[in-house]
Amino acid sequence: MKKSFSAALAASIVLACTVPAMAQSIDEQVNTLFANSTGWFVSFIFSPFPGTSFPWIVGWLVVAATVFTIYFGFIQFRAFPHSIALVRGDYSDPEDAGEVSHFQALATALSGTVGLGNIAGVAVAVGIGGPGATFWMILAGLMGMASKFTECTLGVKYRNEYPDGTVSGGPMYYMTKGFEERGLPAGKILAVMFAIFCILGALGGGNMFQANQAHAQIANVVGDYPGWITGLIFAAIVFAVIVGGLKSIASVTEKVVPFMGVLYVLTALVILLMHADKIGWAFGQIFEGAFTGLGVAGGFVGALIQGFKRAAFSNEAGVGSAAIAHSAVRTKEPITEGFVSLLEPFIDTVVICTMTALVIIITGQLVSDPETGLYLLNEGGSAIQTVDGNSGVALTSAAFSSAFGWFQYVLAIAVVLFAFSTMISWSYYGLKAWTFLFGEGKTKELIFKVIFCIFVVIGAAASLGPVIDFSDAAIFAMAVVNIVALYALMPIVKRELESYLSRLKSNEIKKFT
Asked: What local confidence, expressed as pLDDT, does residue 22 receive?
């Protein structure tokens, strides 16, 4: 471990020594190169249905979430109480195979989803799609619970368990083993495609976007400075944690995630209580905007698209990433982790994203015409005007700071912690995809970890536009492949579900506490 850390530190020092020579233009060079290299990929993923402005990938996710919701009999609502009991450890057998508890698996997966998507992503959605985008975010979150249930059950069922107690699981494994079990073709091809997209997603949405917005918030507090400096500091800290493996990651996330979530939600609740008289009006804006658009960019369709896009980026339901973290849970019942995982979109999107949106709306950050009540668009007509021209994480910061002037400092800390926890979780996702493609081994793992940390620096230096576009595209590309597999394997999940529920009803499955 000392040797690997020294090697990474040496690489960082070399990079730090070469960068100052180009300090004046490094951010611009990185941004231009990055945008030119990834534009085609982004265009393909978000291309609309012919004759419309509706991206085909959003429809792909919505249809899948609807199918799983109906196929499993609205499992996200039926299983909610039992999911809570599982997280509490009521049914946990310490002798079961696996590396982490139900709570640790949930915390690790949540740390990959609860983050800047909830802070910056919601601001992007509301800034473009208006308050109505919030309604579609909530709906997507509720339906996405069924998608998450399906993929995480399969992740545990088809995981690899090794003699040293470690495990590897996720879409790559249920695509190969599950397809083979059902006699279906192309499982290995899908697995390789998913692994490639997962690595891109880890480097993009799970890394560069986090570093980018963390730098934006820090610079908002301390003043502008080159992004690569933030990137180098983050890269060194992230590397120090990820060399310890999943148990090290889980031990950090199970402490950091609850602290971050409680701090953020409590602050939002205080602000909402301070403006309690406006809560009814805000929900009215959300529901009216969901179906009329309230004159925002793109109207009704714009609100819907932004809501679904940001919800998918935030909770990642159907993407397959969380199935990798949940695969490491200690259990002999795959379906139990499906139950636990369905809590993620609820916590992430229905609770935290909604609170962020309400704070932005209630504090009056969006500029509207006092005569018509319609929101005013910016000069390009691509987004709603905001009080100080803010967007992304700066808009959320301004909304919270309007109530508490000191909150920009608290949010800066929260953003750093959110970004940090998301990056270390996604490093694990990317690593598992990397080892699936290139094999297990310390040297191979170290190569990926160093590459991951280099992209931390790139993300902090690039501008938000190209970073967020590439992040969305890479993560949605994972969903394209993953959902094909979920359709093919959902009968296996239903069989597991029926078996477990019948044994639970007959008291064959008992509590351990």
From this structure: 47
